[in-house]
Write a structure and sequence with these properties.
Layout (H helix, E strand, L loop, with lengths): L16 H7 L6 E7 L2 E7 L16 H11 L2 H19 L3 E2 L4 E2 L3
């Protein structure tokens, strides 16, 4: 099977999905490159027995990480975080409803 791809400006290449599936390449695999003449061979390397059965840790759950951080803060640190998050929320959501005049701000 021959599939062409483009070499990125930083020298990166994405292995085509068809090849990754057929060769069972997975996230976290160690890949080696060997060149002979004008050809490059790509191989998955085995660095230890059972390495294929050990999966990399999945991305941590961001909510759990945030909750753990918040639980470790002092009252003063929580207040500072709340003020910071309130400002960020206001920036992200744009003009808010003004209960004083019953309309949205024109800012």
């Amino acid at each position: 099977m021959k599939i062409c791809t483009i070499l990125g400006k930083r020298g990166r290449v994405t292995l085509p999905q068809e090849i990754r599936q057929e060769l069972e390449f997975e996230y976290g695999d160690i890949i080696s490159f060997e060149h002979r003449g004008d050809a490059v061979t790509v191989r998955r390397e085995k660095v230890c027995d059972g390495c294929r059965t050990v999966k990399p840790d999945p991305k941590p759950n961001r909510v759990e990480v945030l909750n753990g951080l918040l639980e470790s803060l002092t009252a003063a640190e929580l207040r500072t975080a709340l003020i910071h998050l309130s400002v960020k929320w206001a920036e992200m959501t744009g003009p808010q409803h003004d209960p004083a005049n019953g309309s949205a701000d024109d800012a």
